[in-house]
Amino acid sequence: MTIPITELTVVTPEGPAGDASGPARPSRRRFRFVSNPKAAFGLAVVGLFVLFAIIGPWVAPYDPSGRTRDVLQPPSADHWFGTSHLGQDIFSQILVGTRGVMFVGFLAGVVAMVLSVLIGITSGYLGGLLDELLSALTNVFLVIPALPLIIIIAATVQGAGDLMVALVIGFTSWAWGARILRAQTLSLRNRDYVQASRANGETTWRIIVFEILPNLVAIIASSFVSTVIFAVMSEITLAFIGVSNVSTWNWGTILFWAQSQQALAQGAWWWFVPAGAAIAVLGTALALLNFGIDEFVNPRLRSTGVGKVRTADGRKVKMKVGFTPVLMARISSTAPTPVTPVARATPVTPVPPGSPAAPSTPATPSTPVTSNPPATSNPPVPSKGTDQ
């Protein structure tokens, strides 16, 4: 009989198990979202584009609409991104056009975010007839095609600029966020702390603002980033197909003039590559920022910037990117330890004085008991020709 002995090894993200008793680091908890590489890279790139949008028209080396004699010149020290067919500096056009792209994206994202929060949380918390009416309104806006509507409005309204495009995108892009916030609010309104606040006599607006809304911040941020991505791509698409005002510079306007003047056929790759690269970098940064928010909200996708963890015996365990670093106890079995049987003590009967001593009988070994009977010899078989 053997009893397996197991050994428990606790894996902690900070090091050995003995270091886990120390005080927690508040700064690590506070900046856990920024510690994610995806979120950090996305924030850095988006911040850089926001900086270009603010100071771009002031630091542009040339007038983006100014004409020079340097026609279709490749990138050089004077013109970093080359020139167009009219001698216009492409680098100045990129810097000045960043403001229009970021303005439309962030304004549309703010409008859609405000509408989704007001309609989604109100519908989910109050319920009743108001919930049915707001849900019906949300379903109507879910099926409205935003881009064709923007094209019709931009072609109909004279002088429709970036403000009009941003408002149309914002007023037609809030339905998805409102649907998600309503579902989350329905789950939160029956929690214990919400019921306790309602029992204490808290007002409805205070429960929504201080009890429910803080738990929805990450979802609201993710919806805002998604709307910004859609608004940026819609603005560039409208400018590229020539629906919006082509006299206002943005990245789509640069691609519009490059396509209309056959830049690819003329070999002027510098005319459209910088604008396309700027669109790709901004879209990638916003997508990574959205992925970082998803990993911060969803524990199954959370990586929290931890690439390796250290066990109690000093080993490093590499965590897979995109998977939850679940720190579980490792059970390792060792060699089985044999158990030695202990002989039972035989009770001794005391002999009264004057009686003869009992003869000692040697211990006889126990005979094994078998279930099969002992084998017997077979009877002889008579041969042929003999009498029975």
SSE layout:
Layout: E1 2-3, E2 6-9, E3 11-12, H1 26-30, H2 37-59, H3 90-126, H4 128-142, H5 146-156, H6 162-171, H7 175-188, H8 192-199, H9 204-212, H10 217-240, H11 251-260, H12 273-297, E4 308-311, E5 316-318, E6 330-333, E7 337-338
Antiparallel strand pairs: 1-7, 2-6, 3-4, 4-5
Helix pairs in contact: 2-3, 2-12, 3-4, 3-6, 3-7, 3-10, 4-7, 5-6, 6-10, 7-10, 8-9, 10-11, 10-12, 11-12
Question: What labels describe this entry?
Answer:
5% strand, mainly alpha, two-stranded antiparallel sheet, disordered C terminus, three-stranded antiparallel β-sheet, globular, 2 domains, MetI-like fold, 388 residues, 12 helices
Report on this model:
There is one protein chain. This protein has helices spanning 26-30, 37-59, 90-126, 128-142, 146-156, 162-171, 175-188, 192-199, 204-212, 217-240, 251-260, 273-297, and strands spanning 2-3, 6-9, 11-12, 308-311, 316-318, 330-333, 337-338. 28% of the residues are buried. It folds into two domains: 2-18 and 308-333, no CATH class; 33-297, MetI-like fold (Orthogonal Bundle), CATH 1.10.3720.10. The protein is mainly alpha-helical and 388 residues long. The chain is built from twelve helices and seven strands. The strands form three sheets. A three-stranded antiparallel beta sheet has the order 3-4-5, with no helix packed on it. α2 (37-59) packs antiparallel against α12 (273-297) and α6 packs across α10 (217-240).
